[in-house]
Amino acid sequence: MVEVLEKISKMGIVPVIALDDAKDAAPLAKALCEGGLPCAEVTFRTAAAEESIRIMSTEYPEMLVGAGTVLTTEQVDRAVAAGAKFIVSPGLNPKIVRYCVEKGIPITPGCTNPSDIEQAIECGLEVVKFFPAEAAGGLNMIKSMAAPYTNMKFMPTGGISAKNLNSYLDFGKIIACGGSWMVKKEMVAAGDFEGITALTKEAVSTMLGLEVAHVGINAAEASEADSLATAMEKMFGFAKKTGNSSVFAGTGMEIMKTPGKGSKGHIAISTNYMERAIFHLEMRGCKFDMESAKRDEKGNIKAIYLEGEYGGFALHLVQK
């Protein structure tokens, strides 16, 4: 998968926007960046699209800006000249796809049936847009089409919202979801960019699902850990479960048999999507101890510590 699409995959959500006035481009870009989604698919449905892409790309170079609803090769050239890093089209036009492929421009054309998928494969694509997602059969349709095309991945757009976002992202063949629920046109028109920032933060929070999984306490040695877990079980009914390196009391308390990371212990934070959580937390300034990463048989990170201590506790990110 090309670098731009790999970044989109880690981002998880692509805000799809249509601007009627280029003056809104900069404040909207600022709102998306502050909300945690420095990314936008600016649709070529309006006359302000090209200039909006130019403004966003210039004033917010950290943003990954693309052009959507691209219907001609001339629009491809205009969008790329303005700063677009990827192209999205509502359907699969072989002429446009081949034009982008030949020029090394990432493109995700809209596909809704197996014939579209096979044309995309013929053009050398690994990712396609599924549009309009909900109207075209939603997640069940994507799963049905993904079965025979094992190497194809999808970016559904159309009808995606905070309510069904994670059900789509839970399917491994989906790299990200496009949506406009956090950038509603009426909010842009009203200049409610603070509201857009709030909705964007909410979208990222819903996707990542970060929450405290358990608290780890450092005991001096195994008998102390067992004694504490036994006390928790006796007092509160937290079932004791003994492991190799720790003893759990229920699911919320882990007592280490020997002192582990953190002078006092650790706090485990669980997430829906490990790679996306790492990406978004790094954007927030967090640093990870990559040597602490534990991986599954496929090489996916299942647990990892952040660098440093917080109130004497190490922070431990774990996959739900």
From TrEMBL:
The keyword Lyase applies. It is an enzyme of class 4 (lyase). Keywords: Carbohydrate metabolism, Lyase, Schiff base. It catalyses: 2-dehydro-3-deoxy-6-phospho-D-gluconate = D-glyceraldehyde 3-phosphate + pyruvate. GO terms for molecular function: 2-dehydro-3-deoxy-phosphogluconate aldolase activity. PANTHER family: 2-DEHYDRO-3-DEOXY-6-PHOSPHOGALACTONATE ALDOLASE-RELATED, 2-KETO-3-DEOXY-6-PHOSPHOGLUCONATE ALDOLASE. Residues 211-320 form the VOC domain. This is 2-dehydro-3-deoxy-phosphogluconate aldolase. It comes from the Bacteria. Belongs to the KHG/KDPG aldolase family. InterPro entries: Aldlse_KDPG_KHG, Aldolase_TIM, KDPG/KHG_AS_1, KDPG/KHG_AS_2, VOC_core. Pathway: Carbohydrate acid metabolism; 2-dehydro-3-deoxy-D-gluconate degradation; D-glyceraldehyde 3-phosphate and pyruvate from 2-dehydro-3-deoxy-D-gluconate: step 2/2. Homotrimer.
